[in-house]
Amino acid sequence: MTVLAARTHDTVTFHAVELLKEASALTRSGIDIISLGVGEPDFTAAPRVVTGLDSAARAGKSGYSPPAGLPELREAIANFYTNQLGARVDPARVIVTSGASGALLLAAMALINPGDEVLMPDPCYPPNRNFVGAAGGTTKLIPTSADTRFQLSAADIASHWGPQTRGVLIASPSNPTGTSITREELNRIFKEVRARHGFVMMDEIYLSLSYDGAPQSALALDDDIIILNSFSKYFNMTGWRLGWMIVPHHLVAPIEKMAASLAICAPTLAQYGALECFHPESLAIYETRREAFRQRRDYLVPALESLGITVPVMPDGAFYVYADISAHASDSSAFSAALLHGARVAAVAGLDFGPAHAAHTMRFAYTTSLERLQEAIHRIKGFLS
């Protein structure tokens, strides 16, 4: 038998995907499952985006694009930051990637040497650890609490930075918690990392799905960080596999060189479609959908609380509720399985996001209609009683 590389054993299992597979199998067997599991919007691409891709396909624009992306798309993304996210960005610093996953891979390959350590909060998005591992690095998970909104603080970084630490990977708003880091704390974090000559990878995938005030990119505070973003969440284009990164000027050439070999380019037709994301008509649709997500959050949080499933911190972004189920169970994985088969509701156990709170937490994604959320709460209530 062929001997596998060690990294195949070290790769962290993405339990949300395993849950999706099990829920999908039940659905195919004729059982109605309400999925609050995988973080995929129930909305799909805006009409102009679909038309843009179709027009490009009919015009034969399906060849390779430049490794860093279509120039006009890079410019559109830069303008989006200037007009919507409060940070002026040179289009030359934008690199279009095959999803945010492609951006994470390129950032890890560019910044991490074998043996380097990267600090991340516990809880965090599980595949992030795998990208660090793919580059030969290791992850140090730092337990967080509701007191810091389940986010890293500058004090955490100062106390946990070690001889092998190379940088930090943080997300605001976060998956799985839906919480953001305050501007003041971000500033302190950046100063701590700069003082140690490290890097900051900043996941802003959910930034445009912020509900408390106008979203503002961390680039407005520090221009020397690596921004990771995606068309999947706010723009509702998960399967289009399109994302981007914004990097300091000195990183553009080496990352573009790697992108040319590792991916050649992001999907070209998807890029032509994505140009229409920034049309005023499309942006109006996305803002309407953002408000729909807010309404779902405002229903789901108190509804869960009424069932004894507590929410330690109100999410201010993304589309997740990170909840404490300890009033009902001491093993969230077993409770997740029981909900799936007993209530026909899929929600992700805390184990997916790190060990610190794994036993007593779950993530509920409000990525389905308000009516389906209401039915999910009805089913959970019946199951618990």
TrEMBL record:
Full protein name:
Aminotransferase
Instruction: Cite the CDD domains for this sequence.
Output: AAT_like
Can you name the source organism?
Zwartia hollandica
Question: Which GO BP terms, alphabetically?
Answer: amino acid metabolic process
The cross-references to PROSITE patterns, in alphabetical order and at most eight, read: AA_TRANSFER_CLASS_1
Q: Does the keyword Transferase apply?
A: yes
Keywords for this protein: Aminotransferase, Pyridoxal phosphate, Transferase
Q: Tell me, what's a Pfam family for it?
A: Aminotran_1_2
